[in-house]
Design brief:
Length: about 180
Amino acid sequence: ASAAPQWADAGGGAWEKLGSGSATSGSTSVVTTNQLTSAHMFYKIVFRVRLNTQGEFGINLSTNSGTSYTTSGWRTTVSGREGGNWQISEACSFGALLAGNNKVYYAGEMKFNYPGGTTLRPNFFSDFAFSQGAGGNSGFYGCAVSTTSWDTVGAYNAIRLETNQTFVDLKWTLLGMSI
């Protein structure tokens, strides 16, 4: 009689929770200053946020472990639906998901990879839902896919979520995956 087969873990391929956080005030929430390493190739942030009033919401990055963050040089391209189809391409001061199209509620995922890369512009792909009003009784609910990128080629090592208004209720989780 032979022994039963033993299965070995193939490694990689599963999302690993790296951190989570929340905010009920302020306009920024640091996601990480030390977890963008070679241990993971792919990352995503799952988020839900309500702002105090209609505003921009998105991601920002740092090349110096969070000492300072970008203040310009971002471009956002969006395709979505909100009572009709639309497409947007705009410059912004941080990686705003909808650029100049302000909303109160956003929920979805931001995906990115290879933050240590030195030959690509940092870029973030997001799919998300949004609403003009907090209670859903003003304006339309909508959904969109968005790509936002920073104009400077190079690595980054810290990221934060950001708004041009004030967080009322922000929840996020950072996940990483190796290959």
